[in-house]
Amino acid sequence: MRLFPCRFPGLRPFLLSVIVVFTFASKILHLFQHRRNVRSPSFLLYLPTFFLTDFLVSIFAWLALSKLPGSWGIAGLAIVAFVGAVDIGAVSSQFGFFYVTGAEVRWNAASTLASDKAGFNLLLSGLMPVFAFGTLLFTLSWILAPLITFILDSWLNAVGNAFAGLSFRSRQYLPLTNEPKEPRRRKYLALSITLIALFIILGIDIYRPQVPYDHISGTVPFTLAAAFQNQNATCLSDQQPFPLSDLVAPNLWEPENGRYKGWKPGSQSSAADLATVMAPSWAPESWPAGFGRWARKGQNSTQEDALLAMSDAVCPGGNSRYNIYNPTLDPMRITNLDLDVLAPVQEALKDHAVPIKHVFLIEMESARKDIFPLKAGSHLYQQIIDAHESASEEDLYELNSRLAAMTPVAEQITGESGNFNLKSDELRNNLTADSWKDPSAPGMGGINVIGALTGSSLSFKSLVGSHCGVGPIPVDFMFETEAEVYQPCIMHILKLFNQLKNEGQKEATDMRSQRWKSVFLQSVTGEFDNQVQLSLQIGFEESIFKENISTASAKHWHKGMKEINYFGYEEPEIYPYLKDTIEDAKANGERLFLTHFTSTTHHPWGLPAGVEVEDYWPRNGFASEHQPMNKYLNSVRYVDEWLGNVLELIEETGIANETLIVFVGDHGQAFEEDHHVTGTFENGHISNFRVPIVFRHPQLPRLDVHANATSISILPTILDLLITTNSLNDIDRDVASDIIQEYEGQSLLRPYKNSHNGRQAWNMGIINTGGTMLSVASAAAPYRLVLPLTRDFTFVFSDLSKDPYEIDLVEDWDFYSLVHTVKRKHGHDAAHWLKDAEKVARWWVNERKRLWNYHEG
């Protein structure tokens, strides 16, 4: 009966030790990660309950390895070996991920990344710490195997022998001393202590609250299995009642006025919208993609049938219908299109024409506002200076000079001076001699938005917001690639302009009658998170990714092309394709909408060979504690130079004075200098959300617009600029003037409304990966809430007027407890805002799922 185990006398104790060491190590790490957000008295009271499942897993492993006879014993050993292998991989990953980011692993997110080629490479980038921790725990398991086996054998055999007269004879496979026969009293003492402890722990376990302690008590491999369970299907067919009902009362409704369709939330069932939407007078014979809600039976029955089929696919059984967005029924919508264009822009338009033939949107990876540009005296700047506390005055001046040379192009794009106190302008000019110089006239250059936030800290959700003017869906990863965008994206609108020209527009030589072409370019992969499909989904006619330029048949392929990170090539590899796109548009008489996504500022912040690396932070020995931030700042300097190259190209090709260039960060990037959790993954810190937004045009006045807006305002602002600058022909202007009234975001070309009739301009930001946390802010108040969408995270409140860098956060697992603390520390108004924010945010989450025709399950 014992032949198999006896052939491997060290296998049983080693496997048992692996289970115990890895299981308890995982739990200890988990408790350490929650040390900041669980009160000490509660933590100590419930501490024994956290390890209950871990003890049960250990006991199961002991029984499977020790007490099963014959073939059952072999099966038990195989099961324990399998669980041990899973534990080794899972727990090593937990430790490695915590070492790199300070956050918890989310197994469903990790599995999604692992199934993606580029995502898998991203995971492999953290393989070394995973391997190191795995080796450490593996070695510890080997060393502790005799002791762990001896303790469990002694304890569980004593309990088993005393309980109901069972005879649990121990199998010894280690060279331990012979067991003396235990006195009868000792046997029952072990049983009594075990039972008493068990009943006490079970009692406390029953008494303790579910949140957050069920999450804290999670034990591998159960947490791993639970992450892959599907939730029940949910389909939302109608808009839920707005929680702040007094703000949408009929006495506040607004009538139609010209192109404005009015505002009457709750006046009709949103499920009936599709049947009541009227086609506009300029409607084409057939609608292009993106205009689903105007597709009507009798006019375009094929598309409507497809939309209804999509509805059945989304919600099987036809329990829901195809939902649409209706601005008239949106209780959160605030429009500022009734206000005049900003006065300086009006004055500029009186003095000279501001032609916008082309629109470029530069989406900048991980672009924090505080480094676009870096400014002397800023919080980040002061952190760097303070880190050099022992530096001489001469060394500090030299450091200041290098910092001044980091973002000279960003200074010129935004019009914001870095304010570096250098001894002479000549020195500064020498430091930035090779950078792009803005040829715009003094006081000209465009609109710089101060106070903007991203709509998502997941790159491609952010891209959907900036290109389509929609709120991304708060679910993990890119469901957006599987559904129709509920608003037409800017590329869809430009395609509609082309279609209307084909149907009735006579050819003309001026730019207003030329066709648009939309192109997307980046030097890195398009395979990550299904970006190729996303580009098609949101309307790009042509996309160029790493996969298009890496083959020998590519037009500008050359030997020596080297990937600088797990995503792809350095930025300049896309330069000749960018130049070709511009030259082809000029030759073909086309108007360009071009998006370029930068990439170097993404982790791991690799630079091409030969690029000099600066030490902005002090280096202590072989590795600096500030190394990740230092690498990031070097990549910022590199991208700043690259943006200058792009601007020079636009000037060299002769299109600068007729091109609107929109610069926007997809999200920020948190480091240890900002927060104890680094990166964007499930990290709601403000450093991940403040981003630059600039609308650059050499003929527009330099203008700072202070607006706590999100990137969903980009699309309506582009349309507003095209209309206001007379850059569209009569038909296109008529279309654009109607369509701009459909969007949720306000135009940044007009005074931004922080509130309207008591309603606040709410700003929602989805936190990477999408389905677990939500950033909630308002233009009408300085407060911010990080709202957990699952029970695995805390509520977090901050007052950005007093704590702009979120150093002193208020955090709690229970919302009502959080409200009480906020009221005590920040006052009644803050607590009232917090309660409203939570209600509105939960309504917004359900509304996004409805509008995206989403279902879970």
The order of strands across the largest sheet is 4-3-5-1-6-7-2-8
Query: Briefly, what CATH class of the domain at 343-609 and 622-697 and 708-715 and 724-733 and 740-746?
Result: Alpha Beta
Distance between the first and last residues' Cα: 47 Å
Quick check: average pLDDT? 84
Keywords: Membrane, Transmembrane, Transmembrane helix
Domain Sulfatase N-terminal: 537-722
Protein name: Sulfatase N-terminal domain-containing protein
Pfam families: Sulfatase
Describe this structure in words.
This is Sulfatase N-terminal domain-containing protein. InterPro entries: Alkaline_phosphatase_core_sf, GAG_Ulvan_Degrading_Sulfatases, Sulfatase_N. It comes from Talaromyces stipitatus (strain ATCC 10500 / CBS 375.48 / QM 6759 / NRRL 1006). This protein has 857 residues and is an alpha/beta fold. Among the domains are: 3-226, no CATH class; 343-609 and 622-697 and 708-715 and 724-733 and 740-746, Alkaline Phosphatase, subunit A, CATH 3.40.720. Helices cover 43% and strands 9% of the residues. The protein contains 28 helices and 15 strands. The strands form three sheets. It has an eight-stranded mixed β-sheet with strand order 4-3-5-1-6-7-2-8, sandwiched between helices. Strands 11-12-13-14-15 form a five-stranded antiparallel β-sheet, with helices on one face. A hairpin with a 2-residue loop joins strand 12 (773-778) and strand 13. The protein is globular, with a radius of gyration of 31 Å. The chain starts with a helix and ends in a 6-residue tail after the last helix. Mean pLDDT is 84; it is low at 1-7, 166-179, 297-304 and 306-314.
